[in-house]
Amino acid sequence: MTAPRDDLRVRLESAWDRSDLILGLLEADAWLQRPIALRQPWIFYLGHLPAFAWNQVWRGVLGRPAFNAAFDRLFERGIDPVGDVYAPAGVAWPSPAEVLAYRDRVRDALRRSFDDVRALEGTDPLAERGRIFQVAIEHELMHHETLLYMLQQLDDRYKRAPSWLPPFAARGAAAAGAVAVPGGRVTLGASFEELPFGWDNEFPEHEVEVAPFAMDATPVRNAEYLEFLTAGGYDRREWWPEAAWAWKARAGVRHPAFWARNGRGWTCRTLFGALPLEEAGDWPAYVSWAEARAYASWKGLDLPTEAEFHRAAFGAPGGTARSHPWGEEPAGPEHGSLDFRDWAPTPVGSHPAGASAWGVHELVGNGWEWTSSVFEPFPGFRAYARTYPGYSADFFDGKHYVMAGASWATDGALVRRSFRNWFQPHYPYVFAKFRCVARETPR
Ligand SMILES: [Fe+2]
């Protein structure tokens, strides 16, 4: 059996391998490109991943001096602007060679730090169970997905499609209508003592009562979302929350960000190139929260709350919560599209073995799911104050919504019941799908 510490070493190395693989898809002249105006250029992320790990492990827990304090600061933090436009101040970025040298030096230092961190177990909760390495690993894994959002938006001339990309999957099953989900108690969050690792916002564990509701058995597909668009969905003010309407007008949003129109009709963007929308009609519609909310209003329905998502995904007759919608087994290829198996969405309905106890499909996998819940701390929340106080707390501003589940670009390590993701409502580049709910008693 592999000792846990060896497992952390292996996981850290394999997270680095995937970072290198993704950044290796860029052409040599891509480093200063910013494919998403709200994000930094690529060169920032090349330095951010090592700087973050360094700042957490070496500077944070071990309290050691810097070898390049300027880079530690320059690459310390990403951005999540809630406004529409972000213009970084004129940064004179170092050369890729300088950043790569910094990265390699950080990696070597981290490889040599396991025993020193271990010596702090018992006095430092972040050292216990290798938590600080988990912070570095999961941060890197989460960035893989956000790097792919950027890669998908990057102009074709700055990237190259690898030969190993899997082919797009065939068509899915028919839409399954709505299913009844009985009311009951759900467990949100996890126990800090019991969960091997979780982020600050996942604690503490607590129970919430959920009233019965009906939920779409499958997420909304591109073909269904097209009906909303052709029904004038983007022109009807009454379907859009006020701030969403203002954003749509200001940003000129007329369709999902991954869609485009050419002489022959709509297309849907993929990591490399675009498909005619008919060929992607069974894929889940990836849209912003605001667009998902407008679609639900058009249907006279709502988005599920975070607690309703949990009831639908992890609840079961008898009251015992499951670890995954399908049960206790770890996520396999039959359960859903996640963990970089597909590198693209798959047709809705392709993973019936992953359905929940109530018969709701694809709650985990094939795209995160938007909820109507504002991202807030659980009662009794405590930040990882010493090394990363702002991980969640900076976003408890009433301007972010919880996303649950997982996408095809979510590493299997992040597929756990208590994991919470969040985004601002007008960010249109996420691999996030949605479905609707109806309630007997309005909230
Ligand atoms: Fe980051």
List the helices and strands and how they pair.
Layout (H helix, E strand, L loop, with lengths): L3 H20 L18 H20 L7 H6 L21 H16 L2 H5 L12 H23 L24 E4 L2 E5 L17 E5 L2 E4 L5 H9 L11 H10 L7 E4 L2 E5 L4 E3 L12 H10 L7 H9 L52 E8 L15 H4 L7 E6 L14 E3 L8 E2 L3 E3 L4
Parallel strand pairs: 8-11
Antiparallel strand pairs: 1-4, 2-3, 4-12, 5-6, 6-7, 8-9, 9-10
Helix pairs in contact: 1-6, 2-4, 2-6
The structure holds fe (ii) ion.
Describe the structure.
The chain has helices at 4-23, 42-61, 69-74, 96-111, 114-118, 131-153, 222-230, 242-251, 289-298, 306-314, 390-393; strands spanning 178-181, 184-188, 206-210, 213-216, 259-262, 265-269, 274-276, 367-374, 401-406, 421-423, 432-433, 437-439. It has 443 residues and is α+β, with helices and mostly antiparallel strands. The strands form four sheets. Strands 10-9-8-11 form a four-stranded mixed sheet. A three-stranded antiparallel sheet has the order 1-4-12. The protein has a three-stranded antiparallel sheet with strand order 5-6-7, with no helix packed on it. Strand 6 (265-269) and strand 7 form a beta hairpin. The longest helix is centred in the first third of the chain and has 23 residues, at 131-153. It is globular, with a radius of gyration of 22 Å. The N and C termini lie far apart (50 Å).
